[in-house]
Write a structure and sequence with these properties.
The chain is α/β, with parallel strands linked by helices. The protein is built from 22 helices and 21 strands. The strands form four sheets. The chain has a seven-stranded parallel β-sheet, sandwiched between helices. The longest helix is centred in the middle third of the chain and has 27 residues. It binds adenosine-5'-diphosphate and magnesium ion.
């Protein structure tokens, strides 16, 4: 039955509501989503190995005959099958099995099995192999022999065989592949295949396909799909900007409020701050929504720029919202803004997901009545039920922590009266220019390229972790002299829990080694209130040594902290190390950053640590980072924080970006119908992209 690409998956035969829910977890809603669900790796099941030749540890395809099957009852019933061919035998073992399965695996039945071979107590075995029955003529029932077997991203309750079957069915129902949306001739001479060819190869690669290139994502077929996805995002962002700029916004001509605020600050603005404030100000006074990104290194003083912008909104009788990526940082902004703005008679309020119901109700009322001119919060700001009286400016701090969609959701809040809020996006992560073009295609850019004067020097030293005792002595000394210190625990990939555990253990050990110090602990698993209590105590100087996971990476400002120890520094990216180190050297004291590493150092890690030692300039660090990053090295920015990409990877596919821009220009000029179709395919109707 032919289907349309955008039909829901439930139109495929055999897909009911339960299966559809599971597919949804893989991001699959429409029939064509199955075509774009790309394998994460492949297995070569094209070669049947004689059983006598299988080795433990690998995965293998074998064919043979059931010699004996019995249910052994130990702790739980186990179906044990002796299985052999002319060259040898092994055991198949099933811990979960149905009565029907048991009956079907009778003596003499011929099977083809695929699974991991391991050494059991009585010879080799395969536990829960995938298997299929072979007919009397011993021919495989499928065409597995002509293609490598794709392994798709998994989800509970959805076996690989089922996903493979669904993908095959979807491709067939679409007549081989979803329609080609790139104009004819676009890819000529670029070494990239057409869509149908690319998908055919990705889902059913021939046995001689370049497996390494397929799995690393560098295969032309894979790049073809990545190109299309990046193009769709580029188009969506450009369309968004285009439409946003056609809408009207409140022109925010400032009164004297901003001047009064700046005059009252205990420091003079840097030249860069003054320049950027002027750029923002000029944008805000226009009746068109501002869409501006402010890039400024850690400690360059972006908060003041945000406050000046917010005041311009308040002065014009409107509201500004500022969204922070964490509760901790949001609280800090809230405290700063209150201290700065309340003396000027400006109401500031705080909205977060974890605040008690009564406090939230009160805050919502102040936001809705307009009594709060400036609203600080986390992503709770753009949830249902948050109504602004007159939101004219949305400020998003540390943008790299948010997805593009979240950013856009906040700006939806102002649309009640038909006007759009101005957008000010701030980030401390200097990203290479090509990446910036892909990620922020919809924004103008300002750069704060100067640090405030009077900052102490930061000396950075790398040392092997065997010198820990020395490091502990340094902490003792610094704290005795009235300073404070951070101890940053190793990054434990993929597990908050392990990371929290490691931090707890470290805190215990350090508290024992330094009994005279008050040691505090923050990690991602603490409740926000607890985290905040510890941070507040650290800020107040009641805690001298703060053991932390990388949660302190963004924004936290404690000028007296002048020593930072970073464990396992060799495993962190340059951008992250730089962000962490940005927490110290904020006061006038000289500061030290000790990078502990576990030898031996890889060449790349050596170069990263050297870069940290040699410079403190975030843009220089970003440049070195890009240079160092060979293929396969991860970008210091989490991909999810940038764009939510399915097939592409901004770091890996960087080289495609110039082509992406070129094609975007071409499509916008000559193929507007394809623009819409591409955007729908990759970003969908539900996404907030482009709905301005
Ligand atoms: P970031 O750009 O990392 O967000 P912040 O806005 O938190 O930086 O500023 C870091 C610190 O520098 C804060 O304590 C802030 O009050 C201070 N600061 C900002 N601008 C100046 C300036 N022009 N002179 C001196 N100190 C400043
Ligand atoms: Mg900041």
């Amino acid at each position: 039955m032919p289907l349309a690409p955008e039909d829901p998956v439930t139109r495929l035969s055999g897909v009911g509501p339960a299966l559809a829910t599971r597919l949804e977890r893989l991001g699959v809603r429409r029939v064509e989503d199955l075509a774009f669900l790309l394998p994460v790796r492949y297995e070569d099941r094209t070669r049947v190995v004689p059983i006598g030749g299988v080795r433990p540890g690998g995965r293998a395809v074998i064919e043979g005959e059931v010699l004996l099957a019995e249910v052994v009852r130990r702790r739980r019933p186990t179906l044990v099958v002796a299985f052999g061919d002319a060259t040898g035998m092994l055991t198949l073992r099933f811990f979960h099995f149905t009565a029907r399965q048991q009956q079907a695996l009778a003596r003499g039945v011929r099977l083809r099995c695929f699974g991991e071979v391991r050494a059991g107590q009585r010879g080799l075995e395969m536990v829960h192999p995938e298997y299929q029955h072979l007919g009397a003529d011993a021919q495989a029932g499928t065409d597995d022999g002509v293609a490598l077997t794709p392994i798709y991203p998994g989800t509970e309750g959805l076996p690989q065989a089922r996903i493979r079957q669904l993908v095959t069915r979807a491709l067939a129902a679409l007549g081989g592949a979803p329609p080609e949306l790139l104009p004819p001739g676009t890819l000529a001479g670029r070494g990239l295949p057409a869509l149908d060819e690319a998908l055919q190869l990705l889902h059913r690669p021939p046995p001689d396909a370049d497996l390494a290139a397929l799995e690393s994502g560098h295969h032309p077929a894979r790049r073809r799909i990545a190109l299309e996805e990046l193009l769709a995002h580029q188009l969506a962002m450009r369309a968004l900007r285009h439409r946003a700029r056609r809408r009207s916004a409140w022109p925010l001509a400032g009164g004297t409020l901003v001047e009064r605020f700046l005059a009252g600050l205990p420091f003079a603005l840097t030249g860069a701050q003054r320049r950027v404030i002027a750029e923002v100000r000029a944008d805000l006074s226009e009746p068109v929504p501002m869409m501006r990104l402010v890039q400024g290194d850690v400690g360059s003083g972006k908060t003041v720029v945000a406050a000046a912008a917010a005041l311009q909104a308040v002065a014009a009788g409107a509201q500004a919202a500022i969204m922070a990526p964490t509760e901790l940082l949001g609280e800090q902004h809230h405290a700063n803004f209150r201290a700065w703005l309340e003396p000027l008679g400006v109401g500031v309020c705080w909205l977060s997901g974890s605040q008690p119901a009564a406090a939230r109700r009160e805050a919502l009322a102040r936001v809705a009545s307009g009594e709060a001119g400036v609203v600080v919060g986390t992503h709770a700001l753009f949830q249902e039920g948050v109504e602004f009286a007159r939101l004219a400016l949305a400020i998003i701090d540390e943008q790299h922590r948010f997805g593009v969609h979240q950013r856009l959701a906040l700006t939806d809040k102002g649309s009640a009266d038909g006007r759009r809020p101005h957008q000010l996006v701030m980030t401390a992560t200097p990203i290479p220019r090509t990446l910036a073009m892909a990620t922020y295609a919809d924004l103008d850019t300002s750069v704060i390229d100067e640090l405030p004067p009077g900052r102490g020097r930061v000396r950075t030293v790398a040392m092997p972790e065997s010198r820990r005792a020395e490091v502990v002595a340094r902490i003792r000394e610094a704290c005795a002299a009235g300073r404070q210190a951070y101890w940053v625990c190793p990054l434990v990939e993929e597990s908050d829990q392990l990371q929290a555990q490691a931090a707890e253990d470290t805190a215990t050990v350090l508290a024992e080694a330094l009994p005279e110090l008050a040691v505090g602990l923050v990690h991602g698993r603490l409740r926000p209130a607890e985290k905040e209590r510890v941070m507040r105590a650290f800020k107040a100087g009641e805690i001298q040594l703060l053991v932390a996971t990388t949660v302190i990476e963004v924004g936290v400002d404690v000028p007296r902290a002048s020593l930072m120890v970073i464990e396992n520094a060799e495993r962190m990216g340059l951008a992250q190390l730089h962000q962490l180190r940005g927490r110290i050297g904020r006061g006038e004291d000289d500061a030290s950053c000790l990078l502990l590493y576990r030898p031996p150092l890889s060449e790349a890690a050596t170069a990263r640590l050297a870069a940290m030692r040699d410079t403190r300039d975030g843009f220089e660090i970003a440049r070195i980072d890009l240079e160092l990053r060979g293929p396969g090295e991860v970008l210091g920015i989490r991909q999810t924080g940038l764009l939510a990409l399915r097939a592409a990877d901004l770091a890996r596919d960087q080289a495609l970006l110039p082509l992406v821009r070129e094609l975007a220009d071409l499509l916008l000029q000559r193929h507007p119908d394809r623009v819409a179709a591409l955007t729908r395919r990759w970003i969908g109707e539900g996404a907030r992209y482009g709905q301005v």
